[in-house]
């Protein structure tokens, strides 16, 4: 462009080459991924908030930091440890869509068919399932009231809480806490209104992800999830896992393999005999760049 004069580092206060990142998404659930294995990366909560902010930073549903496997881990074959941070700076245990994205990167790196990733929610095995398709062994569904966790002992198949049309959810955990409400017509449910009320319900000392699920047929669910820390997500991998598990617990379906359709697209969920879950879904790279360092 004639007359174009680029901004200089002196004028902007930006170091042109800051920390490198990869932006990826799984069904429009998007992530900023930083490799901290050679050079540790420990941003503050305020920095994470700014990075994830869609107006002030790169913008993303979560910031993911790939670290070396943790010493003393029982998972001796783990290739990396992934730290997962929500946009409010809080570190969380697990995210299915995030695991698929990081899993795909590591599978490309090592050129193998499988890789084990450590998370705060436990070890997760990822494997290739097609072109930009990743299968993740998400671990076992946990149904005990202490495992979710709940504030008091009760039957997790019927939690008995409600907000508007959402009533009597199933409580489950697969690395993070969930409450699944079954509805007749998902289109009539406004999760932006009722999700925040239920997320912070006193029954959930660590808060909970709130899912609304509609059975389409014996092998298909529609799902919408209000996620911690307070966002209506386009897709939730762990939410899809627990929705299928909850449908089985309630006797709504007997299918062990189900398609879960979310606003951003669909994943396939397979329930195993030992109560563990395999999730299969797509990943995409958006772009790469550098996180700016500001004076």
Written account of the structure:
The structure is a single chain. By secondary structure, this protein is of the alpha+beta class. It folds into two domains: 9-139 and 282-294, Diaminopimelate Epimerase, Chain A, domain 1, CATH 3.10.310; 142-274, Diaminopimelate Epimerase, Chain A, domain 1. 17% of the residues lie in helices and 41% in strands. It is built from five helices and 19 strands. The chain has helices spanning 9-12, 45-52, 96-110, 191-199, 237-249; strands at residues 14-26, 29-35, 62-67, 80-85, 91-92, 114-119, 122-130, 133-140, 162-163, 166-167, 170-173, 177-182, 209-217, 220-227, 231-233, 257-262, 265-271, 276-282, 284-294. It has a 17-stranded mixed beta sheet that branches. Strands 9-10 form a two-stranded antiparallel sheet. The two termini are 29 Å apart. The model has no long low-confidence stretch (mean pLDDT 92).
Provide a quick synopsis of the model.
With 295 residues, the protein is of the alpha+beta class.
């Amino acid at each position: 462009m004639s007359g174009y004069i680029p901004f200089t580092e002196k004028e902007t206060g930006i170091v042109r080459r800051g920390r490198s990142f990869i932006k990826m998404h799984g069904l429009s659930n998007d992530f900023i991924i930083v490799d901290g294995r050679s050079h540790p990366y420990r941003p503050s909560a305020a920095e994470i908030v700014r990075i994830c902010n869609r107006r002030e930073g790169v913008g993303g549903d979560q910031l993911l930091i790939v670290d070396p496997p943790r010493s003393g881990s029982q998972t001796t074959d783990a290739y990396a440890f992934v730290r997962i941070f929500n946009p409010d700076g809080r570190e969380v245990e697990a995210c299915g869509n995030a695991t698929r994205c990081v899993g795909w990167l590591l599978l490309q790196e090592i050129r193998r068919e499988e890789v084990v990733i450590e998370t705060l929610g436990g070890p997760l095995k990822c494997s290739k399932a097609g072109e930009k398709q990743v299968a993740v062994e998400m671990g076992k569904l946990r149904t005990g009231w202490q495992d979710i966790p709940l504030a008091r002992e009760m039957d997790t198949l019927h939690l008995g809480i409600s907000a508007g049309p959402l009533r009597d959810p199933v409580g489950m955990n697969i690395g993070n806490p969930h409450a699944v409400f079954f509805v007749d017509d998902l289109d009539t449910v406004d999760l932006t209104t009722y999700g925040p009320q239920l997320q912070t319900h006193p029954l959930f000392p660590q808060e909970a992800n709130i899912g609304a699920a509609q059975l389409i047929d014996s092998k298909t669910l529609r799902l919408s999830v209000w996620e911690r820390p307070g966002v209506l997500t386009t897709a939730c991998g762990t939410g899809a896992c627990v929705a299928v598990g909850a449908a089985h617990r309630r006797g709504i379906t007997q299918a062990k393999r189900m398609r879960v359709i979310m606003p951003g697209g669909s994943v396939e969920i397979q329930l195993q005999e030992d109560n563990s879950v395999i999730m299969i879904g797509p990943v995409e790279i958006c772009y790469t760049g550098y996180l700016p360092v500001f004076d």
